């Protein structure tokens, strides 16, 4: 450190027994800062090692407590690009001090998906934003965690993650890995069913499939499928997903491990019936409210107004009554009975009563040839010789029916096939009454 030359005032201070003030240059300040940072980093490292040693259990003692990440690591993750975060996950396959711990991976998982997607639905629809190679790498990270580390990373996501984090597990993971790892006797897949966002739950049901839903049990011997049925917010899309996985006969064979109690078919029937009754009640309340509003305004008979369409804000309009012919014949085609009922209820709410239905593409071709509907709402993915696209093509050969496709799949291959039919439109599931109303007003 360079000391400045003493001035006369400094000599006077020394004579009086007072030390002269020390003046630091910019170089001195920088050197002191570096020394301080080095000592502080060393001290921080020693403290973290001591805490980690204290909270990490010995082998066989269970899952360790999740440590708070060092501020420096958290700051890096917050600033990292998606590519850097993917590379961090790639480093988890290495051994030694450079391998990130479960807490670091958890923070990186949340940062990666929140930087690319706004919601669980957004993630499901635009997952190709992440390349197939990178998705496979992330899936291997989960597999490695479940097979070699007891699922510490996975359970941290399930217990502490956001909805988007758990939705990413549904999309990325091989669910067999989550079925194979447990905490306190509870398989990870059951915890995922209980905590995942309901918008992505139909995909979870379809991905889990028959073997996991019926073959994996909780600590009490109850299959995963009963956990699904026990959720309090099931909707028609969940029931449709179950129908895509199981036949009714297969549902009858799914029972608790003890063999006692009701079958999955009993639970399914009860829930489907309750949903149907709820839809009917909603329609009745809706129609009564509209009839009452029409009577109060004196703009027409209640029965006539009940069949009027609405504008984008849900209000009736004279224009919509003039332009929409509610007497047209509409064919609804979907292999899900519950989903057909939902769509038919929406159509009836909008005043369309002349409705017929079909369960498969093959049946739709026969019905359309006989009845000649004006409009066909056609589900794309259906069992049988013909899917919805093939059935629509056949119907177009024998009738002038207009076609609107219903689909939960929006990949390029499917859209390209559907485009060849020249349909009047597409409606993505899950759909609302407003989606149906807008499609009809643009068409009729």
Automatic annotation (TrEMBL):
**Domain Response regulatory: start-end pairs:** 329-444
Which GO BP annotation is one of this protein's?
Answer: phosphorelay signal transduction system
PROSITE patterns referenced in this protein's UniProt entry, alphabetically: RESPONSE_REGULATORY
InterPro entries the record matches: CheY-like_superfamily, Sig_transdc_resp-reg_receiver, ST_Response_Regulator
The region called Disordered is annotated at 1-22, 295-320
| 4-aspartylphosphate found at | 379
Would you tell me the protein name for this molecule? Response regulator containing a CheY-like receiver domain and an HTH DNA-binding domain
